[in-house]
Write a structure and sequence with these properties.
The protein has two domains: 4-107, no CATH class; 109-139, no CATH class. It has seven helices and four strands; from the N terminus they run E-E-H-H-E-E-H-H-H-H-H. It has helices at 29-39, 43-52, 75-80, 89-106, 110-113, 124-132, 141-144; strands spanning 4-5, 21-25, 59-63, 68-74. The relative contact order is 0.17.
Length: 147
C-alpha cells in the first residue's frame, strides 16, 4: 500500500528493515474523523492503543486508493495480541474498532462538539446531527446507536 501514516509520514521500519507490517481495516471513516475533530489529532489511535493494548509501533494509516483508514500493526500485535483478534483480525477489527469509537462518541455532550468544525467548515453540531442523528443537549451517543 502506498500510504502515509496519520501524521503524513511514510511508515519506516527503522533499523530493522525486515519488520513486516500488517494493515487491518477499521471500518467507517466518520468515527475517526469525528473523534479527531472533537478530541484532537491522534485521539483515535490513542483510543485503539488503550483498549487493544497495542505496542507503540501501531499506526493509523489512510489509504488514498481505498479512501479508508487502516490500523498498521507489527507481527507481535497482529498475531500475538489476543485483543486484536490474531488470525481473525482482518474480519473482526472493523467491529472492535467501531465499538471502541461508538463508546467514545456516546460520552460526548453538546458542549464537546459545539465549537468544532469539520474540513468543510460545518459546525460539529451539524456534523454530529448528520452522522449520528444528534439533535439536542443530550449525549450524542443516545442517537447514534442505529449505526
Amino acid at each position: 500500500m502506498n500510504d502515509a501514516d496519520r501524521d503524513g509520514h511514510r511508515q519506516s521500519c527503522g533499523a530493522n528493515e525486515q519488520a513486516v507490517l500488517h494493515d487491518v481495516p477499521l471500518g467507517p471513516n466518520k468515527f475517526i474523523l469525528a473523534i479527531e475533530a472533537v478530541r484532537g489529532p491522534g485521539a483515535a489511535l490513542a483510543l485503539l492503543r488503550e483498549h487493544l493494548q497495542l505496542r507503540p509501533s501501531a499506526r493509523l494509516v489512510f489509504s488514498s486508493y481505498g479512501g479508508c483508514y487502516f490500523l498498521r500493526l507489527d507481527d507481535v500485535d497482529r498475531f500475538e495480541n489476543r485483543r486484536v483478534g490474531q488470525l481473525e483480525a482482518v474480519s473482526i477489527m472493523p467491529f472492535k474498532a467501531g465499538e471502541i469509537f461508538r463508546n467514545e462518541v456516546s460520552t460526548w455532550t453538546a458542549a464537546d462538539v459545539a465549537g468544532v468544525e469539520d474540513a468543510e467548515g460545518v459546525g460539529a453540531g451539524q456534523v454530529a446531527s448528520r452522522w449520528f442523528g444528534f439533535t439536542g443537549p443530550t449525549k450524542v451517543g443516545k442517537a447514534h446507536r442505529g449505526l
